[in-house]
Design brief:
This protein is α+β, with helices and mostly antiparallel strands and about 450 residues long. It is about 40% helix and about 20% strand. It is built from 14 helices and 13 strands. Strands 2, 3, 4, 5, 6, 7 and 8 form a 7-stranded mixed beta sheet that branches. It has a 6-stranded mixed beta sheet with strand order 1-13-12-11-10-9, sandwiched between helices. Strand 12 and strand 13 form a beta hairpin. The chain is globular, with a radius of gyration of 25 Å. The two termini are about 15 Å apart.
């Protein structure tokens, strides 16, 4: 499984049930909302129950999908636009909305498990939401960026649609009507006048208590004959090429470069990693994973006020930040496995997790570290939390310094510790890196 440097410095690995339960509660804690939003108007009945029954929380599986979408928004938006145009707040008559990108026209980014052939029929709520943003911005044209998530069953896909709305006045009128209905329902604690939720038979969290059954479904805020949808494949290619051409991050050495020093040396020698995949596709999948981890950490941090913080660390030219949970160095990882790894196999199976944690503990001078594993492909119970106690801090720092000095001196990559052998199958430097020789 590769060189398990940290195994020689571990005193114990304990599963921490108390922290696991606290983190599970943290991620399922809902954030309070007060003002009526565009999202509320897409489904007023669901908005009613989310406010009046905060004790009902989505399952971790459903939360995972929501978190993945939010995280993808975050990282994708910052690569295709700039700060002054991202997440722009719009307001109209007591209704608020936050459009993903608004430079010259509103742009909404959506992630989905599949892109239907008839995008309006299959995802009418996308057009309702975009239409409301366009009405609030007084723009008759907007764009939808739709990303189909990569999974074991299908490849990812990305499409852009330009949408022209012919009746903004009607959209505003419908917004005011739904706002008034929702506001009245909340004041009276009675949702009987609200229309049926479009999610009733699609796994709604409130289907067991809602009053949707037997109701008529409200017509869409945006009728099909009031919009023109044009797919934009040329813009799709431009965005993919832009993502593929973004240069690597700054050459400053980071903690992960000490964990994977051979790859770090090759990246510094050959900064343009080769890839025979379609431009932008590999980058989109990276954004999907990166965004999910980012937003998962944000959800944990929000649900644990004051317990997460970061600490800057430095070793020679290496600078980075260490996350701490309850003052203990903590790493959060999301392995894509379908079963949990047994505790006694963790150091060899996830050697790079523990190598990273050993360096973090040594640099912060804290003996105990924590590994949070979130198994995204396991239904139901996804979290495992392990407390890891290390010894011989000075020896760990000696190894960290050795790796750093080799990287700083531009040493040939073969003198540096290899990555775990199985990673070679997914590395653009294979076979030059020689990390996968043990598998051949």
């Amino acid at each position: 499984m590769g060189e398990v440097f940290s195994a020689g410095f571990m005193r114990s690995i304990d599963a921490n049930r108390t922290v696991k339960d606290a983190l599970t509660l943290a991620i399922t804690s809902s954030r309070p909302r007060s003002r009526i939003s565009v999202t509320d108007l897409v489904s007023p009945m669901q908005a009613f129950y989310s406010r009046t029954h905060p004790e009902i929380q989505p399952t971790l599986d459903r939360l995972q999908v929501m978190i993945a979408g939010t995280g993808f928004h975050e990282v994708f938006g910052r690569l295709v636009s700039t700060e002054e145009y991202l997440e722009q707040l719009l307001e109209i008559d007591g209704i608020v909305g936050k459009v993903d990108i608004y430079e010259d026209i509103p742009v909404e980014l959506k992630t989905t498990s599949s892109i239907p052939k008839d995008i309006y029929k299959g995802r009418s709520s996308y057009f309702e939401q975009l239409g409301m943003y366009c009405a609030m911005a007084d723009k008759d044209t907007g764009r939808l960026f739709v990303y189909q998530r990569h999974s074991d069953k299908q490849s990812d896909d990305f499409r852009v649609y330009e949408v022209t709305f012919s009746n903004l006045d009607h959209i505003v009128s419908e917004m005011m009507s739904r706002r008034d209905l929702l506001d009245d329902a909340l004041k009276r604690s009675d949702p009987s006048n609200l229309p049926q939720c479009k999610w009733l038979y699609r796994g709604c969290d409130y289907s067991g208590i809602c009053s949707c059954r037997g109701k008529a479904v409200d017509p869409s805020i945006v009728a099909r004959d009031e919009i023109k949808i044009v797919e934009m494949p040329i813009l799709v290619e431009e965005i993919k090429n832009k993502l593929a051409s973004i240069p690597p991050s700054e050459p400053t050495l980071r903690l992960n470069d000490l964990v994977f020093p051979r790859k770090a040396a090759l990246r510094r020698t050959f900064p343009g990693e080769k890839s025979d995949r379609e431009p932008g596709i590999e980058r989109m999948q990276e954004l999907q994973r990166e965004g999910f981890r980012h937003e998962l950490y944000a959800a944990l941090r929000y649900g644990s006020p004051g317990q997460f913080k970061s600490s800057s660390v430095r070793l020679g030219s290496m600078v980075d930040k260490v996350s701490l949970y309850r003052d203990i160095p903590t790493i959060l990882r999301t392995p894509s496995l379908k079963s949990m790894v047994e505790r006694d196999q963790l150091p060899s199976f996830f050697s790079y997790y523990f190598d990273r944690l050993a360096f973090e503990c040594a640099l912060t001078n804290v003996r105990q570290g924590r590994v949070i594993l979130y198994y995204e492909k396991i239904p139901g119970d996804k979290f495992m939390v392990y407390d890891v106690t290390f010894h011989s801090r000075d020896a760990i720092l000696v190894e960290a310094n050795r790796r750093l000095q080799l990287l700083e001196s531009g040493a040939e990559h073969m003198v540096l510790p290899p990555c775990p052998a199985w990673m070679a199958r997914f590395c653009n430097f294979d076979p030059d890196c020689s990390c996968g020789n043990d598998l051949k």
